[in-house]
Amino acid sequence: MDTQISKRRLLMLLTLLRQQTDEEHPLSTAEIIEYFEKHGIVTERRTISTDVDLLCEAGYDIVTVKGTQNKYFLGARELELPEVKLLIDAVYASKFITPAKSEALIHKLSALVSVHQADNLKRRLYVSERIKPVNETVYYAADVIRMAIEQQKQITFQYYEYTPTKRKVLKHKGKVYRFCPYDLIWNVDRYYVLGFSNSHNKVISFRVDRMCNVALADTPAVPPPSDCSIAAYGSKVFDMFDGHNATVTLRCKKDLMRVIVDRFGENVQTEVLDKAYFLATVDVSVSPTFFGWVFQFADEIQIISPPEIAREYGKMWKK
Hints:
Layout: H1 2-20, E1 27-28, H2 29-38, H3 45-57, E2 62-65, E3 71-74, H4 81-93, H5 99-110, H6 115-124, H7 137-151, E4 153-162, E5 168-170, E6 177-187, E7 190-197, E8 202-207, E9 211-220, H8 230-236, E10 244-253, H9 257-264, E11 269-272, E12 277-286, H10 288-295, E13 301-305, H11 307-318
Antiparallel strand pairs: 1-3, 2-3, 4-5, 4-6, 4-9, 6-7, 7-8, 10-12, 10-13, 11-12
């Protein structure tokens, strides 16, 4: 019986320190003893000190503040307060996560810090007014896709779009797609799955939040084509809009180097052209999305080559 009480007391002490203490809110020995008495467990100062030593030996960072009466708090945690703040901000800001799921995730994240710190988190944050989805099936779809990648299996799903009246309709009269997923990509606050499409006979991407009835198939995965680099494909495709891949040279104003590096990474190939401009050679998916990105900079970014892509860009904006 004494052993059972000791185990229970040790677990209760760990829970108490995890939930109620932090660097600014330590608990004194007297406060801990009073807590145990409320739960019908009689203990003493020496027992508390011994239990703290046992928790420290087990790897928990229990900090002792020496004094006429020792005080204790849980130091290092699985996630520190700044890390929890960062994750909560990301959850609130994400357009991918529904309001209900946001609240559930934030509640779980808040449990990783003390109740005092959790109260500060609630006061500090606001409910974002950004557009949030209402469909939570996307989380389960992403899970099935991850499972298919791990087990090297294909998946089946249907894909939907919106009518002019904002009604969801399945594409191609409810056609069931068969698809071999290679990777999940997070891009511009959306999940995309990259893989080989049987019906398209090439590597393409689908938005996960537009997929429905996603299911694991028994069909083994199809290896990526020998000339296909998954990493390269992901970096070439702008916002996951499919087009034809090409190497494009851009003439850019000198003060736009930050924009180019942000878009294409620090390894982007650049060359100083003159005092006012530099050239950037980039691999992109040539599509209206790419042209729209260039257009936002007016004449500060120009497509120099290949000439056929420059002409295609020019024709698009003359329409």
